[in-house]
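Notes continue from the previous slide.

Worked example: a multi-chain complex. Inputs as given:
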Amino acid sequence: MQYPSTRFSLNSSSTPSAKKTNFNSSNFSSLSINSNNGTYMPYYDTYPENTTISLELFQSLAIERLRILKTIEQVLAKLNTTLSVAPMNKKDEIEKLIRKELKDKLNHLKFIIFPSFTGASSMDLENDIISHYILRLAFCPSEEERRWFITNELELFRYRFQILTKAEQLSYLNDSSSNIKQFYELVVDEEKQQYKECLIASTIIKGLTNAATIAKSFDSTTYFRVRFQHVPDLVRKRSCFLARGYAYVSDNDIISFVLQHFRMNISYQMTCSSKKYESFQQMDTRIESILKMLRKKRIHGTHTNIHAFNDNEQTETITYDMLSGLSKRSFPLCMRHLHEQMIQQHHLKHLGRLQYRLFLKGMGLSLDECMKFFRHEFVTNGSMNPAQFEREHVYNIRHAYGQEGKHTSYTPYSCMKIIQDPPPGVNEHHGCPYRHWDTQTLKQRLTNNYDINEETVNEIIDKTKNHHYQIACQIFFEYQHKVKNYGVGINHPNQYFNESRKLLTGATTNQNTVNTSMTQNTPQI
Amino acid sequence: MSNEEKQQVDETFVTPWNLAIYYRRIFPSHIYCKWLAYGEPATCSQFAQREFSFTLENDVYRRYLSFSNHMEFEKELIKLCPEKIDIGAVYSAKPKDHKMLSAAQFYPIERELVFDIDMTDYDDVRFCCRGADICSKCWTLMRFAMQIMDRVLHEDFGFEHRLWIYSGRRGVHCWVCDQTARELQSSIRQAIVEHITIVTGGKDSSKRVTLYTPLHPSLQRAREIILTEFDGYACLKQDFLGDDQRIERFLRLVPDDNILFFLILDRNKKKEESINKVLQMISPGLDYDESKNDFLNLKFLRRQTLRELFSQLTTSAERWAAFKQHTDAMINSVTSSTKYRKSAYTTLIDEIMFEYCYPRLDANVTKGMNHLLKSPFSIHPKTGRVSIPIHLDSLALFDPCKEGSVPKLNELCQQVEQLPKQNLPNEDGSGEKTATKQKDYNQTSLKPFIDIFARFVQQSQTSKRNETLARSDLNTMLSGEI
């Protein structure tokens, strides 16, 4: 099959035609291999034209790459981390798991995950780039798919880049076939010495690295000068020296810059592509069906257990006066805390409101009931005047239920989102207790407010210390419901709630007449 | 503030009549519009696609207003007479048409990098006022915040055009107007906020500042700034160790020593001897009584020691000095083999100063491009004060609590009403009107602030040419061109 150039020209706006190279297999390799021992990283800023590829290969390349991305996504979700935040020892674990999952499952793209000592052939490189561009094409139309694709391509990129040796990384940065060279300067010795103290002080993150060790390796460290916009990760963590808009990045951290470069290119180009995609009429039906299949395949499997919880599955009708009772029995700690704060303070700050409101929606509280609840707390019990409530809150509540603005029905937050979102600030109560409370507070509250026995508290604390927040939540769940090894991983507050109701209402139907104490608190289930 | 009180304040300060005079004769709309056009012609998209929001009488909000040029802006301003003006982002299309456009057609493209610092966020570390109230004492916090932030924005991020504004009530805003700043993506704005933010966590966390030695250069600078005034501020103005409640609040920041830790390190000595040695070190005069076996209770020793130490002293200054001495002694007494423990003390004094004084930002205002922020020269509806620019050189001195430091709406109106009759605006010729208007505010107490603003606008436009270079740099990167 002739590779139709128009299809990939979707991206042509961002790649000036003069720079396009007409590829064939032979000159392809000369352009892209950038190290001697054959380990190889592509830039993905040019794509092959006038290359022929069979439809079968087209399809299997795309499926393989999708498999890689999905595996990475699953492994990271399972370990509840990302490669960018994971500490060193965990990175090895992640890499091992990825390799284990993909063992014997790859053919054309095997070298991406299992680089061989002999290096990649020119065919491999072409497959790498083609598969990347097929998925770009498949996932460019919708924003959510774009974000998914970019997130996981970035993780893949990171996985590959950190396997490279320092010399290989440098040669990647130094390759004249990419525009990356325009965006950094090497810091000359004179400047390096001038800023010595600042550079050393900025490299020490959270006291993990010793000042003396860094000072020792200072002379052999290469520093790069880049615009601060190009290393947001380092700016955020306060782990690079900043002067007049430039960030000084050591060769250990340069991956942040490389990734940001990759991210900006890819996200800009895909946004451009998406705008053209809509107007793109004469798509070959065979290609179109493959792209459709890819989109379907992405959702299938990975997302079966991550339910959107946009509509409540429960059959029980929930009214707002039931919330206090329910919160004690069936809310995860994050929501229970928000509820208690709401009752105590008669107010929640913006992010707390968002998190709690969507959870309430997800558990099936109707718009009317939700409105009643907020009005009751803010106005009746609190000190807000009714006019202010109408003005500032009615719209937002309706908005969350998809009744205002874009009319999108917003999805309740998953654990992943709650854990990764900005931590609660002063007087804020959103977030994940296991992630955002300090150990002392968590311990104290679990013991005093929630009556958890010491053994369980210690178990929970232990998990949070090892960053297993969702497992800590599960232990809380098991304790609360007096079950052991309940085989459902908690990955969504609404899932927690639904599982809880399943257990508890199951109990009430069985022991309908016996269990009167329960029906007092949760009427009419 | 009760409703009745509010009513009273409204009547005294902000009346539609006063506002009408203000917008017609005092509000510097031509400089204002020049600012938001950033050197582009009057009818440019910069200005025409900018979102304004007016708060009208009875708290009616009108979002997504936009004006095709300066004349239209001024006309509508006088006609609608808003109690408050907010400025939003520059959008991809005219905001007034937003209802006809889809999300793909209507999105923010540019926005000044803005910061909002609000005194209410400091309520747990100020003892003079609460909520919306401010006084000269706690205003020191805002002066710290402005000086620290301004240096970060300039020295770390290289921003040249920083406009600091007193919000009119209890806080300050900063508008960073460099071209590069206006084009920043939301994720990078967030990174900047996190770079600056040190005080994290809600009330749930007992200690919210954690520092590591050596401090990051930008924090070293912040520390220098805080040090200039900390003792005077915390001990005298706030009297932060003045009573038991404040002392308890303070002690929450002091880590409790775990005596077991020290014991492990002195393993080769006899247990009792070892415990006593440690006790002498952290709490002289206390003996460990093996018979009681109150091993675990010793955990709370340090706070208790400080409590006792403080009770023997009377003033905050003495207590703070004693605390510093005590901590220094701890740092020096701990041997090098207890480095880990030592690190908890070396940063402790800094951490406490940062907890009490370091800027606390409203992150959401900065992160989103489409967040509204109260405009300079808008009137604060509750106080009647004008949101005025603060000169960069006087960030360390400005104090809105000083009598006469911030012009009020009713004062300004009185000042223009006392002007000789011939200066009243002529309703017929609009050109003449502008000329008269200029004269009017020149004779009010708002003049110095308009001068600051005018100079700022002048400067932010002259260096535009240099910035286009940096901008093309970024755009090339975005487009992925070689």
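Summary box: Chain B has 21 helices and nine strands. The beta strands of chain B are 50-56, 60-65, 84-91, 108-110, 113-118, 162-166, 171-176, 373-374, 389-390.
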